[in-house]
Amino acid sequence: MSFKKIKNKRVFVIAEIGSNFDQDINKAFKLIDVAKTCGADAVKFQLFKANKMYEKKKNPTAYNIFKSIELNPKWLPKLKKYAEKKKIIFFASAFDKESIKMLVSLKVGIIKIASSEITKLHELGYAASFKIPLIISVGMADLADISEAVEICKNSGNKQICILHSSSLYPTLPVDVNMSNIIKLSKIFNLPVGYSDHTLGNTAAISAVSLGATVIEKHITLDKKSKGPDHFYAAEPNEFKKYIKDIRETEYILGDGTIGINTKVKKNARRKSIFISKNIKKNEILSKNNLVIKSDSRGIEIRFLSSLYGYKLKDTLKKNSPLMWKNINFQ
Hints:
- Strand 6, helix 9 (about 180-190) and strand 7 form a beta-alpha-beta unit.
- This protein folds into 2 domains: about 5-255, Aldolase class I (TIM Barrel), CATH 3.20.20.70; about 265-330, Alpha-Beta Complex (Type Iii Antifreeze Protein Isoform Hplc 12), CATH 3.90.1210.10.
- By secondary structure, it is of the alpha/beta class.
- The chain is about 35% helix and about 15% strand.
């Protein structure tokens, strides 16, 4: 997988399953189905051990919560195989060196680094050393943290990095989104930048895409009312389907940045252009005898008429066809 390809194509949408499978592998399979049906490009899980994140004696509440949502590492091959069968990319967030090793051995195409782990530079460098593309969330990082993280990855020989802007608030209110950071991060680091969306609704994703986000990540769930820390702000299947639809529609609205007359408008535009005046074969020379000006803007602009004389035609064209630049052999 290459982030350059993502940057040059459509927005890469990640269905963040996270812990919302409720330690039920069949529910995990269903969520992969939902992600595929809704049009996501990838599914993501979280790979961590509660005892490596919180000491049970010091913080029993946090420990118990994370223990209750752990992903059984023995399920990883089954989940990846199922995702591949459904033709959707499978990967996960790694929270420690052991998790990184598991994902590398599984030959995932991406590794995600959560913003809570961004300052663990020794583990980040270790993950980067495998040259697997990294998606790094930065919701719990300042500019210095991000700079160090990017530098350690590059020094480890990995330039395949995508930064995910995020607010790390669950849910994130509009006042806390600060979406203009997408533009700033892109300019500062010259890397693909995306958005990890914890807001309610679709407006933030539309804004992110409009500002140049190349990756969008969103939590999904089968039921918002399910027990667990990430269900209540996640998107249910119908919501997620509309979410992706709005992202794709935004891409169409943004277009490719070409300035000119829409091809659907050209035929009826009140301006003149160059047309073929009679049937003309390939390699015939363009001249006053086979070109005519018509009140139809589909052809080459009339200001170029005299400069076209003497050139050969690349294609056989019928009478009254608009002359296009692609039809002319300039060699």
